[in-house]
Amino acid sequence: MTSSRLSAADLNTPNPAAVSDPVETAIGVYVAVHGHFYQPPRENPYLDAIERQPSAAPFHDWNERIHHECYRPNAFARVLDEQGRLLGLVNNFEYLSFNIGATLMSWIERHDVEVYQRIVDADRKSCDRLNGHGNAIAQVYNHIIMPLANDRDKRTQIRWGKADFRSHFGRDPEGMWLAETAVDYPTLKILIEEGIKFIVLAPSQAERCRAENDSTWMEVGGGQIDPTRPYRCYLQSGDPDSSYLDIFFYDGPISRDMGFDSALSSSHHLASRLSQAVRGDHRPTQLISVATDGETFGHHKGGTEKCLAYAFIEEFPRRDWTVTNFAHYLSLNPPTWEVVLKPVTAWSCAHGVDRWQDDCGCGGGGLWHQKWRRPLREALDWLRDQLIRVYEEEGKKLFDDPWQARDEYIEVIRDRASVPKFLARHQSHKLSSDDRLDALRLLEMQRHALLMYTSCGWFFEELSRPEGVQILRYASRALELAGDVAGLQLEKSFIKRLALSPSNVDCFENGAEVYRQLVIPAQITFEQVAAHYAISSLFTTYAREQRVYCYSTSQLDYQIQRLGSVTLAVGQLQLTSEITRESQHFVFAVLHLCGWDFQCCIQPFAGRRNYTQVKEQLFEKLAQGSAAQVILKMNQLFGDVAYSLQDLFAEERHRMMRLLTQETLTRLDQLYTQVYRDNYGVLMAFHRDELPVPQELQVAAEIALGHRLLLTLRSFEQDAEDLDSTLIILAQLEAIATEAVHLHCQLQQPEAREILQRLIERALWTLFNEREIENSDPQVHVLERLITLSGQFGLNVSFTKSQELFHQWLHRSPTITPAIVNLGRKLAIVI
C-alpha cells in the first residue's frame, strides 16, 4: 500500500500537483473517487439515542464500530513505510468526493467532534483548491427510495437534505446523492426545482445518449455509456429549452472491483486499474470516476484507507492526473452530450426498484423469500396516507401552511432550542401550551413517517432483521403521536395489514407477530422513564436538573433511608420531553431489598398533601423493620403495577448489574490474591523447572496481578500531575510487569488497557501544549517508560490517537530535540 520512495519530508511539503490542480481549463485526465458514507438511523425513537448492540462488540453499537474502522481512519489516513512506521497523515476527505448521510453526520458531530471538524475542514480546503467547488454533496435526508415516495415526501427529503448540508458545510450543495441511486423522471423534476445541479448514477441506469446537435441516438441500456464525460438530461427529451439536470455515470467495472475484488489491494494496483479506463482517442480531457460505499474504505476492507491516501498524494500525481470532484469538473467541462434514463432504476437492483417492494430475489437469503416486501410497503403507504389526513386536519388549526412547516422542521431537528422561533414563524395564531404540544407532536409524527421509509428495512432477506424492526418502531411512534393529537386508534388496522407479510422465521410467522413481539415491547411511556430514574437514583447522584436521554428531569423532592440491607427512596419528579415538550409530574417509591431485588411504583402527582402522606406512611413501615409491610403499603398506595431492574433501559441496567456484582468480584480478587501470595514460591518453582503449572494456581496469579495492575493504574490516573509520584508508580508498574513476565501471565484487563492508553495520550497532549520542549526530557522519559510497559503487559494498547497528536505537533513545531525523535521512534513515527 505504500512505497519507500515517499519520505516524511514529502508529506510535510505535499506534491504541488496534489494540491494545486488546474482550475481554469480542462486538460488531461481527471480522477474523482466518490464515497457514499451512510448508516441507517439506529436511534430508539423514544430515547433519541442508540442503545447497546451486542453484535457490534467490543464497541457500543454499529455506528461506533464503523466509525472506529472507517470514518476516523479516513480523517487520519496513515501513510506508512515498508516497516509499518508512520510517515504522515492524510485527510482523505480532502480528496474524496463524498456524501455523508444526514443522520450519520449528526451522530459523528455528537460523538467525535474532532473527526467532524476534519470532515468540514476537508470540504472547505477542497473548495479552496478547486475554485470554490467542494468535495461534499448532499443526500436525500434519511435514505428513502425516491421513485416509491409521493411528491411531497420527495420534496421534503430534498429540502431536509439541503438544509442539513448547509448546517454542516456552510454552503448550498451543488449535487445530491439519491439513496441507492434510485431515480425516475418525477424525482428529476423536483431535484431541478429545488436547485440541484447534478446527480451521480450507475452506468446501467442510462438508456440512450447522443452528442449535442446529433440526431442519432446511441443505445446504451446494457451499461455501455461512456462514463468519462458528464451528460445533460432534459425533462422533455430533445427539447433544449426544457428543464434539465446534469448527470455523471461512474465507471461500473472499476467501482465493482473496488467493492468486491482486488482494486484496493495497493495504491499502485488502484492507479493501474484506473488507468485502464483512460481513453486513447486524443480527447483534450476526460474524467475517470468511481463510486462505492464509503464504508468500503476501512470497514468492509480493512486498511484500504491507507491505499487511498497514498494514491491521492503520490500515485495519481505521478501520472499527472488531477484529483477533482464532480462539481469542479462540471464547471470546467459542461455537458456536450444528452442522455435519456430508463424509467425507474437503482444501482443495487436489476429489477428497477423492486428490491424495496417485491419478491425480486435481490438481497435474498438462499431459500428465504421476500414475499413480505409488497405487503409491508402497502401497510406503510396506508399508514402514511392516514397520517397525512391527521396532519392536514389538525395542522391547519395550528400552522399557516402545515406542509411548509414540515419542510422547515429540519431547523428544529438540527437545533431543538429553536422551537420558540420556529413556532412563532409558522403559527396561524398565538398558540396555547397545549397547542404548542400538539404542533410538535404533529411534526414529530411526520418525521417518524419519513423515517419509517428508510430503505434498509427492505434491503435484506427478512422482515424481522434489525433494519425491518427499526422502521416498524418508527411507524409505531408515528401511530402513537397521531393518537395523542387526534385520538385515532390506527394500530389495530396497521397490525392487520402487517399480517399479510409472511416471515421466513417460524416463531414470527408474519409481520403482525414481528410487530407484537419486537416492536410493542420496545414502546416507552413517561412512567417507564420515571421508573428508570427512580431505580437508577439508588446508584446515581442526580442533580436537581438533569438530562436523561431526551428528557429533562427536575427533582422536586427526594428522600432516601436505609435499614440494614434494605433501601427505600421516595421522591417527586417533573419529566419533560426535549422533543415534544410534553411534561408530566410523578411521585415514585423504590425499594431495594438486596442483590437484584427491586420494587418501584409510579403514580401521577396528586398534590403536596397526598405526597406527604405517601412518604410518611412508607418510611413509617420501613422503620418497623419489615420489608414485606413496605411492599404491601406500596401496593396499597400505588396499585399493582410495579417496575423492577428488568424495566431499566439497557445501558443503565447493564451498569447496575456491574455495580451489583462489584462486591462479589472484590471478594474474589482478595481471595485469589491471598492464594497467589501463599503459593508464590511454588509457582516460581514450577516455572523454573519448566513444569506444567496447576491451572488453579496460574489463574490465581493472573487475576491477582491483573487486579494489582488495575489498582495501580487507577492511582496513576488520579496522581499523574506530580512527577515524584509518577516515578514511584512507574516503578510499581514495572515490578508488576516483571512478575507477570516471569510467571508467563496473560493479563486480560480491558480497563487497564484503556487507562494506559489515556495516560499516554494525556501525557503527550500536556507535553506538546503545556511544556517547553527544550526542558521536557523528564516527561519524555516517563512517556517512553509507559509505552514500553504497554508492550510488556501485552495489553494491545492503541497508539492511533497518540500518533495523530504527535504528527499534528510536528507540523507546527520549530523545535525537535533528540529525546522527541526517540519518542517518535517508540510510537513508530518517522521524523
What is the CATH topology classification name of the largest domain? 7-stranded beta/alpha barrel
Shape: globular
CATH class of the largest domain: Alpha Beta
Number of domains: 5
- The strand count comes to 19
Number of helices: 31
What is the topology, as strand order, of the major beta sheet?
15-16-17-18-19
Rg, rounded, reads 31 Å
Based on the structure given, which CATH architecture of the largest domain is correct? Alpha-Beta Barrel
The computed structural class is: alpha/beta
Beta-strand fraction estimate: 5-15%
Percentage of residues in helical conformation: 40-55%
First CA to last CA: what distance?
20 Å
**Mean pLDDT across residues:** 92
pLDDT under 50 segments (min length 5)?
Answer: 1-21
Largest pleated sheet: 5 strands, antiparallel
Question: What does it look like?
Answer:
With 831 residues, the protein is of the alpha/beta class. The chain has five domains: 8-341, Alpha-Beta Barrel (7-stranded beta/alpha barrel), CATH 3.20.110.20; 371-522, no CATH class; 526-644, Nuclear Transport Factor 2, Chain: A, CATH 3.10.450; 648-748, no CATH class; 750-831. 48% of the residues lie in helices and 14% in strands. It contains 31 helices and 19 strands. The strands form six sheets. A five-stranded antiparallel sheet has the order 15-16-17-18-19, with helices on both faces. Strands 1, 4, 12 and 13 form a four-stranded parallel sheet that branches. Strands 7-11-10 form a three-stranded mixed sheet. A hairpin with a 5-residue loop joins β17 (566-577) and β18. α12 (373-395) runs parallel beside α18 (466-486) and α18 crosses α20. The longest helix is centred in the last third of the chain and has 29 residues, at 650-678. The model is unreliable at 1-21 (pLDDT under 50).
